[in-house]
Design brief:
287 residues; mainly alpha; ABC transporter involved in vitamin B12 uptake, BtuC; 13 helices; globular
């Protein structure tokens, strides 16, 4: 029995003796928690497609940053935040839905990134890491950027929680109460964009939307309370991040994909559990 415990502890501790695994674990946890907290709004308000659009739009910023030899994180953040603002402006001026505006703009932004980078063949490997994620390759500078972005997102939601929830679920009453509804909508989209930027390096453009949606959707089947969805979603995302990272280390598979796969399996386990307490249809309680 003691040998089994020792072997199990060795499996857990040994990967953490490597600095790259320490950075990867820290970055993955930050990204997972930030995605889950923002994801509560994404799932409750049906913004998953917008999240996907912001992730793909960041590709244009990454490509431009590579060509200009500037900060890739800044390029991704600028593109994601700019796209979030553009979606709102286009949907209002063009009188089209936010989903339609997202579809038009993200396809254009992603295509722009391809056009910019396609002549420069030597950047293929760098872009591969951002398209599919490479959390094991995160350096100290990347970690600082991810930690900073995650902290800003979580702090902003904590400080503006009541206002953001009010605007998300009852914008008419919020406007009547004098709350700047339009400004807070821009803030929420900006926070989604910042979260996407932080998550792209760890998870990749293709998989970011999965971590924005899946943990919050799983939590939504277990609780009616919006705050509960945030907290439980963050806990589920953290578990998926840790388990997925260890799977990637020992199985030598893509870390972002393994994290998302673990999160998806958790969703299916809750979905198929016969004794689960269904959250029912409709919007969650904001209490």
């Amino acid at each position: 029995m003691s040998d089994l415990i020792s072997a199990s502890l060795r499996l857990v501790v040994e990967p953490l003796t490597f600095p790259f695994m320490q950075r990867a674990l820290f970055a993955t946890l930050i990204v997972a928690v930030a995605c889950a907290v923002v994801g509560a709004f994404v799932v409750s308000k049906g913004l998953a497609f917008i999240g996907d659009a912001l992730a793909h739009a960041s590709f244009a910023g990454i490509a431009l940053a590579l060509l200009l030899r500037r900060s890739i994180s800044f390029g991704a953040a600028a593109a994601a935040v700019a796209m979030s603002l553009a979606i709102t402006l286009v949907s209002r001026r063009g009188r089209v839905s936010a989903d339609t505006a997202s579809g038009v703009l993200f396809a254009g932004a992603f295509s722009l990134g391809i056009v910019l980078i396609s002549p420069a063949r030597n950047y293929t490997v760098d872009l591969f890491a951002y398209v599919f994620g490479n959390v094991l390759g995160i350096g100290n500078e990347d970690l600082v950027v991810i930690a900073g972005a995650g902290l800003v997102v979580i702090l902003a939601i904590v400080l503006l929680y009541r206002e953001l929830v009010f605007v998300a679920f009852d914008p008419v009453m919020a406007e009547a109460e004098g709350i700047p509804v339009d400004l807070l909508r821009y803030v929420l989209l900006g926070l989604i964009g910042l979260t996407v930027m932080a998550a792209v390096k760890a998870l990749g453009i293709v998989l970011v939307v999965a971590m924005l949606v899946t943990p919050a959707a799983t939590a939504g089947m277990l609780t009616h309370r919006f705050q509960g969805i945030m907290l439980l979603g963050a806990a589920l995302a953290a578990v998926a991040a840790v388990v997925g990272l260890y799977v990637a280390f020992y199985a030598n598979v893509a870390s972002g994909a393994s994290t998302v796969l673990v999160s998806t399996l958790m969703f299916l386990a809750v979905l198929l559990a016969p004794a689960r307490r269904s959250a029912g249809s409709g919007l969650p309680s904001v209490r």
